[in-house]
Structure formats: C-alpha cells, structure tokens
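A further point concerns the way the authors explain their paired sequence and structure data. Each protein is reduced to its one-letter sequence and a matching series of backbone shape codes. An entry of this sort, consisting of the sequence and the corresponding backbone structure tokens, reads as follows:
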Amino acid sequence: MINLLKSEYTLATLSRGYKRKTSGYIIANDKSTAEDIGDEPLLYKTKHPDLTVCVEVNRVKGVKKWQSMNPRLML
C-alpha cells in the first residue's frame, strides 16, 4: 500500500513503539534502533526509508504533535 500511495501523498505512520527503551514523541531516522523506537517501527523505516515513522505511547498526542510540526499537510 505504501508503494502505491507514496507518489501522490505525503505518508507517515504512528506507532506506540512497544518495548522501546525511550519515552515521548520520537521521529525515526536512519540511526534509530529497536531500543529507540520499537521493532515494528524500525521495520517500516528500514523497508521504506522515505516514510515518516513516529512513535508516541499516546496516539492522540502523537497525531497532534505530528500535525503541529506539519501544519500544511492534511490527515
């Protein structure tokens, strides 16, 4: 699905980051580890390097944080 949509939309995914050793809102980068963001978000970032991958235990808070950082983009 990501490959089908990425040419027409700005895509991002938000995860709770289950079993990560960090807390708070984090945007994954190429140096992120499973301990930083969790194993599933790391898999998304590794497989789709251009995809914005965010983690936040409170998903509502995470979406609001992402929106505040990207005000011109729609959900």
